[in-house]
Amino acid sequence: MTTGELTQEVPLVGAxxxxxxxxxxxxxxxxxxxDGAFTMTVSGTALSYRALKTGYQTVYWNNQLxxxxxxxxxxxxxxxxxxxxxxxxxxxxxxxTAAGTRVQLWSGTVLISEVVATTGTYSFTxxxxxxxxxxxxxxxxxTTGTTVTVPADGSTPTVPxxxxxxxxxxxxxxxxxxxxxxxxxxxANGAPVTIVENLSGLNESRxxxxxxxxxxxxxxxxxxxxxxxxxxxxRDIAATYGAIKDGATAVTQLGRAPTVGDAPTVGDAPTVGDAPTVGDAPTVGDAPTVGDAPTVGDAPTVGDAPTVGDAPTVGDAPTVGDAxxxxxxxxxxxxxxxxxxxGTANEFISANTWSDGFYYIRIHGRRGAFSLTKPFNxxxxxxxxxxxxxxxxxxxxxxxxxxxxxxxxx
Length: 410
Known about the structure:
By secondary structure, the protein is mostly beta strands. The protein is built from three helices and 23 strands. α2 crosses α3. It starts with a strand and ends in a 27-residue tail after the last strand.
């Protein structure tokens, strides 16, 4: 025999209690009386117990919400009576917005429902107590969002006004569209520069780039987070992309992979600092598959959702010479490092800049995380070095007839 009671601030009358097996099959039932109590005669089989009533959230014994995580027991060998259940009201979240706006209801990174506010009103029903995110997508594509908390007492939740969402135009959601902040860093002359922007969509990234200083350094700090965001740092992806494309063209013209003495192999450019490049220096034509590069530090686990504008998933890599292949490999080979702390902790990267090419910063959500209600702060400090004005040697137009005439001295 199993006994127990159900409450929701007061005894809950007329609620159904079910004893179910691991597949959800119902074996025994009981209904609560005027005191919210029940008695159920059961067998010795290990069963889980759940309580349900229209307008309330279904709950398994021991405050579990899913059968998979419920605590089964045998009334003969380990009877846990009396069982106690606390059921919470299911409520609706409603509001008004501009007619034609798409309104999405999210829980974390899970899209629960979407409606169109055809006449300017929206409503989501039967919501259990939790924190939710509302996303408003206007007919012109403008996006805002807000958070709403459904209380356990069944009262009507208040939907706060949606704050402004900060997105740059053009949208800097791939390394090819990275926002160039070189001028701001030059003007700052070693002082911090802070960029404020939202990561406003599932699996999106935000990209920034700046001109490096030979012998200098850069400090990159990501803060003001309400979701789990990470930051990655790269040397000149565009230059690597161009080298891969040029190398592929050389292969096509030669009709074979270049031998010693031919054009330099892809990846011969000096690496940033003394760290080897990710997926180091394969020869033109080697065509390493996507994913050959080992992860660095605490990179998100394999299987995390790729971000928008990111490399295609493993296996998608096309043949050498294809622009998509070059796009994928350029990002992999230019990778320097990642800061991937857990939760909403700040992220930090400090790196030397040994060339005057571009360096790239990518902000991305762990497992697709994003926030419309709180923009992140990205702070960069670029420190010049002793080689500030040193650049690669270039010959005069038309070529040089004599580079070194000789030297005499002490």
